[in-house]
Each structure stands twice: as C-alpha cells, then as structure tokens.
Specification:
With 204 residues, this protein is of the alpha/beta class. It has two domains: 32 residues; 154 residues, Double Stranded RNA Binding Domain. The protein is built from four helices and six strands; from the N terminus they run αββαββαββα. The strands form two sheets. The chain has a four-stranded mixed β-sheet, with helices on one face. Strands 1-3 form a two-stranded parallel sheet. Strand 5 and strand 6 form a beta hairpin. Helix 2 packs parallel to helix 4. The N terminus is likely disordered.
Length: 204
C-alpha cells in the first residue's frame, strides 16, 4: 500500500514538472520577436540629374573599420550603400567628351556611450544610453578627356540620434534606419543645391 502511494506521488510530481517545462517552452517561444523588415532606400522617384558627360563613375574612398566605435556596418542599409544608390539612381550621363566621378568621402556612424543617473534617482529614471553620430560626405567632379578637372560640387551632412537604456535590438535597428533616412534627405538637398550652383554649366 505504501508503494502504491509513493508511485502516485512520483507520477504527480513528474506531471507537474512536465507542465512547468512545457510552460517555460511556450513563454520562450512567445518572447522571440522577429526582426523588422525595412524597405530598400531608392531615389529614382526624385528624378534624374542629367549631366553633359559621356560617362559616370561612382567610387568610394571611405573604408569602414568594421569595429567599435563604428557601427555603420550593422545598419539595415549602410550609409555608403544608400549614397551609392542615390548616385546610381539620380546622376545620368547624357553624352559628351567629359566624364563625371562621384566620390563617397565619408559614410561613418560612431557610437558613444552616455552617462547614466546613479543611485536612487537612477533606479527610477530611463536614461538615454547611447548616441549615434552619422556623417555623409561626397564630391561630384567633372573631368575633360585629358583628366583635367573642370569643376566640382561637394556636400556634407551630419545627424545624431540617441536610444534609451531600455531599447531592444529592434528598437535600436529602427532608430538606425530612421537616422539613415534623415541623413540621406539632408545630403540630397545639399547635393542638389551645390551641383546647381557649381556645376550648372554641365547640367542638361
């Protein structure tokens, strides 16, 4: 009789244990948040910038370190890739003996840790924990067939964003994407203005 009672207790204990394990598995599945999908950054809708040149070259002299404090390589679309796409979508060679070269000079994003509140006040405060400083710089230059520079237009844009200490990985990635979008709007405005101002004779 004692053996029967012991067996019953063991079965009940195992049953409760299995339920707890199953419950933890379910919670674990529910806690998995899918990574957000981001649209590609394209610029064809802004219209072409037609240049009286026979060819158009896009190059980058910026070499990302691929390590801290730089984080641009972690972005859904890197600033360098976005700026390269801008040039490919907008700068159109319409013919002529000269050629144009678009050079990406800087496309960096630096992460800086911010100071947090300490003590009792810090325990009840959600601080901004990191700041991201982004810079884009590029030059469009025109050369004749003897490689003599006939003029250039330079543009630079910078933006910053901070994220809170309670930000998730997805929150941070979304902040990076919005930062990149804003940065591209800024440099687009600067490039349009400076190309018109300094290379107006080469516009078709």
């Amino acid at each position: 009789m004692m053996k029967m009672k012991m067996k019953t207790k063991i079965k009940r204990f195992l049953g409760v244990g299995l339920l707890i394990v199953f419950g933890l598995s379910v919670v674990g599945c529910e806690a998995t948040v899918p990574s957000p999908a981001f649209p590609g950054l394209t610029f064809g809708h802004l219209g072409p910038i037609k240049l009286n040149v026979g060819s158009m070259e896009i190059v980058s002299t910026y070499k990302p370190p691929m390590s801290a404090p730089n984080v641009e390589h972690l972005f859904p679309t890197t600033p360098a890739d976005a700026l390269n796409r801008w040039a490919a979508d907008r700068l159109i060679a319409t013919g002529g003996s000269a050629h144009a070269r678009f050079v990406i000079l800087d496309a960096s994003v630096i992460e800086t840790a911010l100071k947090k509140q300490k003590g009792i006040k810090g325990a009840f405060t959600k601080d901004q924990s990191e700041r991201y400083d982004a810079v884009l710089e590029a030059t469009l230059e025109i050369f004749d067939d003897s490689e003599t520079s006939k003029g250039f237009a330079n543009a630079r844009a910078s933006r910053s964003v901070t994220v809170g200490e309670d930000a998730t990985v997805n929150d941070r990635t979304k902040a990076w994407f919005r930062l990149n979008e804003a940065l591209m709007r800024d440099i687009n405005t600067e490039l349009e203005k400076n190309i018109s101002l300094y290379l107006g004779n080469w516009l078709n």
